[in-house]
């Protein structure tokens, strides 16, 4: 009975704070910021990858970003992203690409703002520290994506060598598509832990952010599945928005994803508040 009461208190606390602190508006802000940061990030990353000789980065990056999205949502956007990224660019160190990195970091700042509100903490770090940290996040993500793209290019060769030397490993190798999905999922999980630990003000322990991350991953899976099923059943987006259908679908999908992400932070904060209240009760 006590567990039921505790669960209800935590859930009501998380949902109540999400509503009272304009969680829906923050989800909208985060969704639009993410969409606006996505293209600049991929342009910056592709240009850097080309400079480093990883010419196959564009297609690999699209797979890493969109493989975990439902096919109905990802396919039309991925085609447009590839069209943008395959335009030859030689301006790595010009203002254009530096601005792309800056705009990409705005997406990181949107994540920071939403998590600060969810965790109910006040930001005390300077603007320059926060912006530098956001740019470092973008740079680390870029280098990570470049490294993964190079790895995936050589993955079939490595797989053939391993299968030739170790026959028992063949059933476990799978296909390149499977490995892309696994790597993309691992990137998402690592990214969630990174932003929950380092972006908001204050400090959090690994176990204190775990419930919200598990909730986020499960809710993303359920939410994206339901939204994809809705798109399969109803075609109102196509008839209503015509040529803008793909972008509207992406905005709604990112809005759902953003709301769930913020709720994950709210859940962690609510659990921490409950445990702190319990610790203050004598006996």
UniProtKB/TrEMBL annotation:
It is found in: Cell membrane. It comes from the Bacteria. The keyword Lipid metabolism does not apply. Pfam families: Virul_fac_BrkB. Keywords: Cell membrane, Membrane, Transmembrane, Transmembrane helix. It is a multi-pass membrane protein. The keyword S-adenosyl-L-methionine does not apply. InterPro entries: Virul_fac_BrkB. The chain crosses the membrane at residues 35-54, 92-111, 135-158, 178-199, 206-230, 242-263. NCBIfam families: yihY_not_rbn. PANTHER family: INNER MEMBRANE PROTEIN YHJD, UPF0761 MEMBRANE PROTEIN YIHY. This is Membrane protein. The lineage of its organism: Bacteria, Pseudomonadati, Pseudomonadota, Alphaproteobacteria, Hyphomicrobiales.
């Amino acid at each position: 009975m006590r567990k039921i009461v505790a669960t209800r208190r935590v859930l009501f606390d998380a949902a109540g704070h999400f509503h009272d602190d304009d969680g829906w508006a923050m989800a909208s802000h985060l969704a639009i910021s993410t969409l606006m940061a996505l293209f600049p990030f991929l342009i910056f990353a592709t240009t850097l990858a080309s400079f480093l000789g990883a010419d196959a980065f564009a297609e690999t990056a699209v797979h890493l970003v969109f493989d975990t999205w439902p096919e109905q949502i990802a396919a039309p956007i991925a085609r447009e992203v590839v069209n943008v990224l395959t335009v030859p660019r030689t301006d790595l160190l010009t203002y254009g690409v530096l601005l792309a990195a800056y705009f990409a970091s705005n997406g990181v700042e949107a994540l920071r703002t939403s998590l600060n509100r969810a965790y109910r903490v006040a930001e005390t770090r300077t603007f320059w520290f926060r912006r530098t940290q956001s740019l470092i996040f973008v740079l680390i993500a870029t280098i990570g994506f470049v490294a993964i793209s190079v790895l995936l290019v050589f993955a079939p060769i490595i797989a053939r060598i391993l299968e030739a030397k170790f026959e028992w490993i063949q059933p476990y190798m799978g296909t390149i598509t499977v490995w892309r999905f696994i790597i993309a999922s691992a990137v998402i999980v690592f990214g969630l832990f990174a932003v929950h630990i380092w972006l908001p003000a204050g400090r959090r322990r690994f176990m204190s952010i775990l419930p919200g991350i598990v909730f986020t991953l499960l809710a993303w899976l359920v939410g994206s599945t339901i939204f994809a099923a809705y798109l399969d059943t109803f075609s109102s987006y196509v008839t209503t928005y015509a040529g803008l259908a793909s972008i509207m679908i992406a905005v709604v999908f990112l809005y759902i994803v953003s709301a769930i992400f913020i709720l994950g932070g709210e859940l962690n904060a609510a659990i921490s508040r409950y445990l702190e209240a319990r610790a203050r009760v004598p006996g």
